[in-house]
Design a protein that fits this description.
The protein is built from seven helices and ten strands. The chain is α+β, with helices and mostly antiparallel strands and 346 residues long. A hairpin with a 2-residue loop joins β7 and β8. The radius of gyration is 49 Å and the shape is elongated. The N terminus is likely disordered.
Length: 346
Amino acid sequence: MNNVSHKIPRKSLITFTIFLLTLIPTSQADPNFAYIDCPNATAYAPNSTYNTNLNNLLSVLSSNSNASNGFYNFTAGSSPPDVAYGLFLCRGDVTVAVCQDFVAFASTDVVARCPRSKWVTIWYDQCLLRYSNVSIFSVADTQGGIVLYNSQNVTNVTSFSEVLGQVMDDIADRASSDNSGKKFATAEANYTPLQPVYGLAQCTPDLSDFDCNSCLRNGITSLADSQRGSQVLFPSCYVKFEMYPFYNANFGAAPPPPPPVLPPPPSTTTPSSPGNGGISPQVIIVIAVSIGVAIMLSIACFCLLTRRVKTKKYNSLREETGKSKGITLKLKPEKLLLARLTKSAA
């Protein structure tokens, strides 16, 4: 094939070179840039009313990038079709300071990457920014998104898909019902004993719970679940999973399970039965033992008193017998009684 040289006018060459430079990321481009949706069907003219409104919009978004939930929307202008609607959303696990840096950078980077377009959405790993000449608030938008994925496959697709499905179902439900103002959730589970899988889901907080869940479910079905990592970027939500921890686990994780409910301690009393007059068996046993002890003490006292009386009588009889005969008899009480009876008979 013959080489053909063309002479290009110098002015045209400079113009073409400047145009190409606007399409190439500058050296200051965010390293976490993910994707930009930049249609050219709705272009605005330089120094137009929309251009002025857009500049005002981007300035306001950047000034409000310290929002506690990492989300802010604004409308610049009041006369359609020159009204500029815009918003930013920072990932739920980044700090306010990081969010401010990203929004400030994105506000200039988006225009450099996509000049003159009235409708643009740009995604980074840590935030997204979008604007349009029609309202984009509180609407689940899944148009113009993209699926990104890791080129490496997982070894066991069936097992991995099952684990991944559980993770993504969990975070879709928790993110859509998140009351923190972020609509953000993360989770992890073991694909193998030594290999966890990590998932993340987030919606723009202006969506309803239903719309958020629908948007996330739409993204989950589009994930490349046979790869070692994938993400789906929509203008209103995004989902992502990886085989390594790519988020701050201190944010968005499921709350710890509540402590187990312990059974009540066994009762120290037994319900009374109708036959004992409402007194528990323990009380009855105590009363019975007390009565038994009292009876035994009474019997012991009676026996002791009886013995003392018998002893006293025996001593009296012995003294009386000794005095009558002038001798001291050492007889047992039975023999002493017999002796007295014999004496009386004589």
